[in-house]
Amino acid sequence: MATVNPRKLLAWFIAAGLTAVMFGGVAVVAGRVSAAARFVTWPVVGFTALAALTAVVGVWFGRFRPALLAAGLLFSLPLSYVLSAAPMFGIAFVLVCLGGLAITTGEGAAGVATGVGALMVLLVVLQGPAVECRDSGVSANSGPWWIESSESSSSRSTSLGPGGAVGGTTQVGDREYEYRCEGDRLTRFRGVG
Q: Which residues, at least 6 apart from 94, have a Cβ–Cβ distance to it below 8 Å?
């Protein structure tokens, strides 16, 4: 009877777990496509799926050399930080290259692919909406990191009378949007002009 190597079994479970988490993240992003003020489109979902696939390819090709995989993961942190300032198509190109390196060389490159892919998925999943309504007020920002923005942004809000309704405008990218909140619900979000 063949014996099972516990180290290989653990590596397999970690790789399978990361696979499930990555594609769960893609499902979360896909569920936000029609959500107001999120700016999630199908190309953003496709980008998230590419990042998840890169992470999965990296972990599967590097799973049997955990020390080199971990070393690559450390290098992926500063690389992901720098990449998040690049245009989305540039990041997608880097993800494809990292996935190819992980397949051809494995080990350290696989760790970089895993880390960068997983962190890009995390950045998309954690990105909040451009306007968030709360009972205590409104939080408005310049939108998601994947929308190119001008150097200046503005936001203003005003109370619309009784009932706790608040309205205002915010700039996302080079476009201004009008919003209306009633309590903790965003009831209107549309482009102005």
A: 83, 86, 116
The position carrying tokens 């009008």 is 178
Does the pTM of the predicted model rise above 0.90?
no
HSE-up (13 A, CA, CB side) for residue 156:
2
- Domain locations in the chain? 6-126, 131-191
Which helix (DSSP H) or strand (DSSP E) does residue 75 occupy?
Answer: helix 66-83
Residue whose token pair is 């696939």: 53
Nearest of 132, 128, 119, 127 to residue 181 by alpha carbon: 132
Each residue's pLDDT expressed in tens, for the chain with a length of 193 residues: 677 777 777 878 888 888 999 999 999 999 999 888 888 889 999 999 999 999 999 999 988 788 888 888 899 999 999 998 899 999 999 999 999 999 998 778 999 999 999 999 999 999 888 888 887 778 888 788 888 766 555 566 666 666 668 888 888 888 888 888 888 888 888 888 7
Could you tell me which of 107, 105, 109, 116 has the C-alpha nearest to residue 54?
Answer: 116
Kindly give, in sequence order, each residue whose CB lies less than 8 Å from that of residue 142, ignoring residues fewer than 6 positions away: 130, 149, 153, 170, 171, 172, 173
Answer positive or negative: Cα dihedral of 150, 25, 137, 34: positive
- Name the nearest CA neighbour of 22 among 58, 66, 65: 58
- The two three-digit tokens of residue 111, written as one number: 């760790």
